[in-house]
Amino acid sequence: MTLIFSGHPFAYEAERLFRSFFPPVKITLSHSAEDACGDFCLTERIRDGESVTLSVELRAGEHCGRRETVVPADTPDKEQERELCILLYGVLSEYTGVMPPWGILTGIRPVKLLADIDERTAAERLLVAPEKTRLAHRINEIQRPLIGSIPERSFSLYVSIPFCPTRCSYCSFVSHSVDKAAGLVGDYLDRLCEEIGAAAEAARAAGLRLDTIYFGGGTPTTLSAEQLKRLFGALERFDLSGVREFTVEAGRPDTITREKLEAIKAAGARRISVNPQTMNDSVLEAIGRRHTAAQTERAYELAREVGFDSINMDLIAGLPTDDVEGFRRSLDRVCELAPENITVHSLSLKRAARLFRERESELSGAFEMLSYAHERLAACGYEPYYLYRQKNTADNCENTGYAKRGTESLYNVFIMEEVQTIIAVGAGASTKLVDVPKKRIERISNLKYPYEYLDRFNEALAAKSRIIGFFDK
Fold it and tell me: Residue 335 and residue 322: Cα distance in Å, rounded?
């Protein structure tokens, strides 16, 4: 299929909307209407004096669909883009028989976009289904007091541990199997502790106060208990007296031990994750997770024994070999365990994931899975409190975090809604400097892979000086 953008600058949104209707397969992009041959989708803008004609034509096999609209020539580009996307949505819906519930929205943060839009307007102007607008509004209500609680000139710290026991087939994160990267771990921790120190100095010079801490990955508990203690010790370079939340992604059940959990708790962390992704052993095997549902339950029980009273569990809708009934059983079992938070992800097939390269058809059933999750979790006392979307998700769905009232993760809300500075350290980590009053955001990204991070570590250190410069402005 060739996707053609002719006479308009709306290629980015048009491509993202087009991909939301189809699996992550290769398409050819063109900016010339002359390439309209074979299977193609032509999006075109033609100016004619005081008017502009926007049109979309799709030819696929024997199917031919076309829609167009005429708007005044002085219509702002943003409005023309919206009109063209509505045409594209209509043509693709007619061809596929699918009507994605998020309409023409393609952004990561729909809650922010829909916060001040009522259901009728969202449906008419953006084609968003009413239930999605209601979901966004409910999340916005829950987030409002959390965002209002952010201390002035505060920040959150993200620490990246890009190692896992094995690499899952759906994964596109910057993570390395410890079997392949064992030789890097020692040097990586040396440099990471050094960068943590540099971040502490930069934050102090900028007059920032640490609010929340989040250790993510990868799988932080791939590290030994002694290695974890060493990293936690490096945090003493910060003033920790104002920290309201400290989270460590324990993640994979096959990496969780009592010794590691005790080290995490002794460091002051109160929030952890025990992430099964599914409670079906055959699905776990299919995605390359070398643990069982029984191990997940044992890890969860161990975390309770050690004294953790804020646990998150992740599930993924749309995993290969899973089906709606299987997902329901997984969710029901997790609800029986009663963690404080449950996050339900839609499988996102990224080009870096092995599963992307192996599958040619869209994974099905995710929409039904997420609908069941929303109803079941509400019945169990969980409320949705943050939401984001990714490219190439199964059935064009979203990722939603649910929590029992009062147990919401501050870090998840702050990073997703871009309302607080996040200083990030480690390979693949992305610092996001936020000046809310002036509506300024600046990103500083570390090199992605551990070996790059080690080879060019001075770049990561030098970048920390930009934190001071940003707030000096």
Answer: 18
Tracing tokens 């540099």 back to the chain, one arrives at 198
Q: What are phi and psi of 254, to 5 degrees?
A: -75, 0
This prediction has a pTM of 0.91
Give the C-alpha separation, 236 to 232, whole Å.
Answer: 8
Alpha helices in 45-170 (DSSP H): 77-96, 110-114, 119-126, 130-148
Give per-residue pLDDT as tens, 155-177.
999 999 999 876 655 555 545 55
Backbone angles phi, psi at 363, to 5 degrees: -75, 140
Q: Whose CA is closest to 163, among 225, 218, 226?
A: 218
Residue with tokens 């505060």: 154
The pair of structure tokens assigned to 367 is 């929409």
Q: Are 42 and 11 in contact (CB under 8 A)?
A: no
**Which tokens sit at 336?**
């029986």
- The answer to whether 335 touches 380, Cβ cutoff 8 Å, is yes
Q: Give the position of tokens 């190439």.
A: 392
Q: Where are the alpha helices (DSSP H) in 254-363?
A: 258-266, 281-286, 293-306, 324-337, 354-358
Which tokens sit at 359?
């599958």
Q: Which string of DSSP letters, residue by residue, matches 148-184?
A: HTPPTTEEEEEEEE-EESS--TT--SS-EEHHHHHHH
Question: Which residue, among 77, 98, 119, has the nearest Cα to 18 in the 3D structure?
Answer: 98
In sequence order, the β-bridge partners of residue 344 are 315, 400
- Least Cα distance to 359 among 370, 344, 346, 348 occurs for 348
CA distance 344 to 324: 14
Write out pLDDT tens, residues 14-39.
Answer: 999 998 887 666 789 999 999 999 99
Domains, the chain, ordered by start: 2-99 (3.30.160), 149-467 (3.80.30.20)
DSSP state of 32: -
Q: Enter the tokens of residue 347.
A: 């499988």
Give phi and psi for 452, each to the nearest 5.
-70, -45
Residue 11, both tokens: 């290629």
Cβ 442 vs Cβ 433: under 8 Å: yes
- Residue 68: beta bridge partners? 55
Strand partners, 312: 273, 341
> Can you tell me the distance from the alpha carbon of 355 to that of 287, in angstroms, rounded to the nearest whole number?
8
Compute the C-alpha angle 13/19/20, nearest 5°: 90
